[in-house]
Amino acid sequence: MIFLLLLFICQSDSSSSVVVAGYNVSASAGSRVVLQCVSGRMVWTRDRVRDRQRVVHWDLYRAHPDYAMERVVDMFSAGDQRIYNSYNLGRVGITQTAFRDGNFSLVIKDVTMNDRGLYSCNLHHLYCHLYETVRVQLNVTKSRRKEQRFWDGQKAVYVVLLGSTVVLPCINRRNVWTDWSNDEEDQQVVHWDRQSPGIRHDRADRLVDLYASGEQRSYGPLFLQRKMNISNQAFSEGDFSLTISDLQPTDEGMYSCHLHHHYCGLHERREFQVTVEPPIFFVALSACLMPETPKPHTLPNNTMKAESPRVINVILPDQRHHFLLPLGYVLTSFLLLVFIILIIILITRRRKIKGLNCNISMSPSHCDRSSRSHSSSDDFEMDVTEVNMCNEEERRFGELDGKLCACF
């Protein structure tokens, strides 16, 4: 697993390389690890049309009336110059020796009010992926006393006299803009170093050197050279990654990838802190933890018979109070039956008592009427007055019964 630790730019002196990134790489022992070091600027893609590799162009930005940007002139390293406005032919241009002496200044003759604006000098190096810009503000005046040149903090400002000739400066004399080496492959080199724990950077061991010409030099013991290698297509693809096979604890340390392109002025370094962890083993489950398979019974006649499994299916109802439901039904039915029997007994006894009272205290005709009235289902209810009368007759009957008993 690779973790990005830092990304910074620092340079101690002109000869040292620039540290652009640092990584922490952790892998298990015995594994294969790749330290990635990729840079598109180191791709060796020499263009046979060499004069198309570098170009300079001047642009003009007008603040009014339409705030437009227009191309004034451009020139390639071969010296071909192109003017975009026919009005500027013979009046505006760049010196033909610009890519030899590094002077890309724009010369404007017979300055007019229409030449006012913000000019930009743009340098492009397609091979080295370099882009530089210089800006100059041009103002035109009719008074000679107002002519001046100054720096406003962001750009140079030129105030020139109307009708005069002005040179807008753009000078860059770096070799990358003024020279082209015939031995380009000798100026591109990549090398890997390794610092063991406790070793300083200036005492690091060189592992491998790789040149754009295809030459590769490996250092150290033979077994170390075989386990560390770089692709043969590194300069074609821009991939200078170092592959380490069969990683061991002795391979720990700080690895650094140095990229040098002397022609383009590129000097970069990427650092990798490699840590080796114990190997990972996949331990299988012990056989004792697995359930044992029952062996089939052996019959006397050496015939094998598989014993059929004995399965008991138990069906449990969903509700937990299923035993109380039948009992509730039985108790409810029993109580209802007892209630009905009790009502029947009470009604029968009451009718017997009232029939006896009517036989003793009332006339036969009345009793007959009463019996008929009581026997009929339609005249079952009694009037309140009759109930009071029957109660009074019962008391009299009780007194008469007592007297008869005394006489006998």
UniProtKB/TrEMBL annotation:
Q: Which Pfam families match?
A: V-set
Entries under InterPro entries matching the protein: Ig-like_dom (IPR007110), Ig-like_dom_sf (IPR036179), Ig-like_fold (IPR013783), Ig_sub (IPR003599), Ig_V-set (IPR013106), MXRA8 (IPR042472)
| The keyword Lipid metabolism is annotated on this UniProt entry | no
- What domain of life? Eukaryota
An example Gene Ontology cellular component term from the record?
Answer: plasma membrane
Q: Which UniProt keywords apply?
A: Cell adhesion, Cell membrane, Disulfide bond, Glycoprotein, Immunoglobulin domain, Membrane, Repeat, Signal, Transmembrane, Transmembrane helix
Query: What range does the record give for the signal peptide?
Result: 1-17
List membrane-spanning regions: 323-347
Q: Entry's Gene3D superfamilies?
A: Immunoglobulins
- Cell location: Cell membrane
- Is Disulfide bond given among the entry's keywords? yes
Occurrences of domain Ig-like (ranges): 16-141, 163-273
Q: How does it sit in the membrane?
A: Single-pass type I membrane protein
Q: Name one GO biological process term.
A: cell differentiation
Could you tell me what this protein is called? Matrix remodeling-associated protein 8
Species this protein is from: Seriola lalandi dorsalis
